[in-house]
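Response to reviewer comment R2.3. The reviewers asked that we include at least one raw input/output pair. We reproduce the pair for DUF559 domain-containing protein here without editing.
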Amino acid sequence: MNHNTPLSPRPLHYLNDVRRRVLTAAQLRKHGISTAELNEQCRPGGPWRQLLPGVVLLYSGLPTSEERLHAALLYAARVSGSGVPPQPSAEEPHSPVYTEAMITGLAALTLHGFTSTPPLPSLERFDVLVPRARRLRSTDAVRIVRTPTMPVPRQVTGLPVAPVARAVADAVADISEAGAVRLLLSEAVRAGHCEPTAVVRELSRARLLGRPHVVDAVDSLLAEGRALAEDHLYRMVREYGLPDPVWNVDLRLPGGPHLGDLDAYWPEEAVAVELDTRAARQDEDALWSEYARKREYLERLGITVVHISPRKLRESLEQQATVVRTALMAAGDRPPAAHVIVLPR
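Raw output as returned:
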């Protein structure tokens, strides 16, 4: 590595850290590098190279994927009052580095461990999420994605990365092939990265549910998410010794109206389980109100309804089995429930 230019007053001899191999022009000025000197170092055949506007790689070779990611974040990060993006000090090497910028889209999903996304070296451009008010332009190497509300980033290998559901939506916005969209959505749920409702919510916020190929993928996603939740529910009953319920039933009053569909029902105890798999496509509050009205009506008839989300089944199966068992054991202490007709759904 060639260091012909003196780097006073703060020499850059600690280039083993990738964040010190990629710096902004403003940071280099703090090290005594003038604009003329910087241009000389970055000349064709020179020892350094400019990766992005105002972002420099302190050697002339090809950057690694990690260096490219840091460069993209340096380019997009909000600078401090001194004009220098915040960097960790020797005393605080793990302090936050980049302000109001995080990796999103395909690169974020690869960092989260997706197998259906391209490896980082094959991505010619990284997506970076920033607040909507920021004045930044996309470049050949960085696509600026704007949002009115920044999510809380996840730290992955020391980088701020958008949560999976948000990263999926940002990736899907740039994909027109139906199979690729379906594959991303399926892996997000099947691998346990996030709930189907979280993905659909972000797709709705991004106004992507008007695209036919996205809607088709969402329908498949919701069906797959429900199937996985039902498998967990079956396993809960089997592994934790709960009495066998009747599965997937429709309750009706004799000669009366439809009361609602239930995923599991114990007629003798009048206890029901309903999976909370709201699609959340348009109005989540209205969908939740519908769930609440149904639950309230059934409980007025003496039927105990246990609501369980797919996440709870996946993350705390034993705890959910205890909740259901408690409801079954308490049945003898309640007044008899109204007579209802149980039909297969």
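The longest strand covers residues 258-266. Residues 1-16, 89-96 have pLDDT under 50 and may be disordered. Further pairs are available on request from the corresponding author.
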